[in-house]
């Protein structure tokens, strides 16, 4: 399995003309570490000048060409000028609004770079709604404070530390309140990105007494999980089991005959093959073969094979007597088919037709090594 995840993380704290912030350096460092745990390749930059931010974005643009998912995180001062958002560098010229926007990184530029990369998902996280002291000198109205809402192209999520037009204070502890909530929930196993941000919002609201409410604008077209627990387990199986193009059917093996029949997409061959796939037959098969059988049973069930659907529903009784590692291989194969395509790449749209049946298997303690859903 290969999830190609790329992130650019920037934390600006040592502002020349806006005062030093306490948290952004820690926020960026800690988020980068958490993203690395989740499999991201992360470029981290602290206290960037305007030129350094521009170069970091150019490097990020190149890295996104070889990625499935791109993520941009910024902690520091952000501002809106004439309805557009800008992320302030430590050397941003704050003598006036025109000077400030031309010496900051435009958020629209970040969005455009990520949109043109055409990744499956693009995620932008902004802990950048702090109260900027230099804004007061511009005599701007309260309605123009904080960050403005933005257009999120298809496949993109933009997450704000607080609602558009509102501001958030720099935190009192090691991290800002928003980033602290992110760090608490970002790596929750098998939790979709949308569900994760809901948890962040609830935690942040509680931590700030309801004064700070995070907000997201999303047009994500597929599902994304920062921590897909199944992905950490599939190294147990051979590449020939994970990738259809590498799997060779050996007709001398009875389990491979079942696989061949399931791959026909013909109910008149699939249903009898599933019926003859007894626990005794499964017990003689290798874990790698069982993993592939599991994948194809789930595929057949999604194609409305009655026997495959019944096999999933009666999984515990149909696999009674199997060694735990062989039962696990079957279930791992089914779960793998939900999330990964024939090339062992994360699907843009998960195969969820029979997912609820698999989800209900979590009630069985003996299957917890495979089913570890937290959302």
From TrEMBL:
Q: Which family does it belong to?
A: Belongs to the peptidase C14A family.
Q: Which domain of life is it from?
A: Bacteria
Please give the SMART domains that the UniProt record associates with this protein.
Answer: CASc
The record's section on InterPro entries has: Caspase-like_dom_sf, Caspase-related_regulators, Pept_C14_caspase, Pept_C14_p20, Pept_C14A
- Pfam families listed in its UniProt record: Peptidase_C14
- Domain Caspase family p20 per the UniProt entry, residue ranges: 3-133
Query: What is this protein identified as?
Result: Caspase family p20 domain-containing protein
Q: Which PROSITE patterns match?
A: CASPASE_P20
